[in-house]
Specification:
- This protein is α/β, with parallel strands linked by helices.
- It folds into two domains: about 25-115, 2-Layer Sandwich (Potassium Channel Kv1.1, Chain A); about 135-240.
- About 40% of the residues lie in helices and about 15% in strands.
- The protein has ten helices and seven strands.
- It has helices spanning about 10-20, 40, 50, 75-85, 95-105, 105-115, 115-130, 135-150, 165-180, 200-210; strands at about 25-30, 30-35, 65-70, 155-160, 185-190, 215-220, 235-240.
- The strands form two sheets. It has a four-stranded mixed sheet, with helices on both faces. The protein has a three-stranded mixed sheet with strand order 2-1-3.
- One of its GO terms (biological process) is protein homooligomerization.
- It comes from Smithornis capensis.
Length: about 240
């Protein structure tokens, strides 16, 4: 005996399509479950989040028929709270900012960028580092040198030369030549035209290398020979610890 079409069970894709017509929406965001309204999700029509629920559903569903978004679910609660009440989060600012960028919620992005944490990172620190020639490339070079020297070792070190002005760069040239003769690799940062000091740049280097998952520390580099001035004025040894 055949089953008539009106009594056939709904498949998950059909269930998902029907749910877009309901004012209540169930979500699975990276394993975290949420229930909200369609109007909340579409509060900012130009956002990527609103696009996901405009017209035919553009998302897959999980085994329970909930719409699935493959993003960190922990931070979606802050996104949802902002959509519901315009409350800007005060916790996990950096992570929520990444999610706001992904969902393209422009008002939230702008408000988060005005927070001290994001403002300091985007406007102050990154603008400074943009004035340090080849900063990102030098960070990668440091890591390559350290990894090359890590074979059968617990630690490896990288010599870094930091010069803020053209005059300092000229003063360091003899020392750089001496290290080159000794076949020691040196990563040179600077010069730059900005207020932050050498110690500020050293902190940035450590911060950005650690952000890539490495354990690192630094100290003044004590030269063995060939330096006509105190090496710790411009030369530092960054120590990578592997285990």
């Amino acid at each position: 005996m055949s089953i008539s079409s009106e009594h056939k069970p709904l498949g998950k894709q059909v269930t998902g399509s029907l749910r877009t017509l309901s004012p209540i929406v169930e979500l699975n965001v990276g394993g975290e479950m949420y229930t909200t309204t369609l109007s909340t999700l579409k509060k900012h029509p130009g956002s990527k989040l609103a696009e996901m629920f405009t017209g035919q559903p553009k998302l897959r569903t999980d085994s329970e028929g909930r719409f699935f978004i493959d993003r960190p679910g922990t931070y979606f609660k802050y996104i949802l709270e902002y959509l519901r009440s315009n409350q800007v989060p005060t916790q996990c600012i950096q992570d929520v900012y990444k999610e706001a960028l992904f969902y393209d919620i422009e008002p939230l992005i702008k408000q988060l960028e005005d927070s001290p944490e994001i403002f300091g990172e985007l406007i102050a620190r990154k603008q400074f580092l943009a004035r340090v020639p080849n900063y990102s490339e030098n960070i990668e070079l440091m890591i390559r040198i350290a990894r090359a020297e890590a074979v059968a070792s617990r630690r490896s070190s990288v010599i870094v030369c930091v010069v803020r002005t053209e005059e300092d760069a000229a003063r360091c040239q003899d020392a750089l030549n001496s290290l080159d003769v000794d076949k020691k690799s040196v990563v040179k940062f600077g010069p730059w035209k900005a207020v932050p000091s050498i110690s500020d740049l050293l902190d940035c280097i450590q911060m950005d290398v650690e952000a890539k998952g490495y354990k690192i520390s630094f100290q003044p580099y004590v030269a063995e020979k060939g330096f006509r001035f105190k090496s710790h004025d411009f030369f530092y040894k960054f120590l990578f610890t592997w285990w």
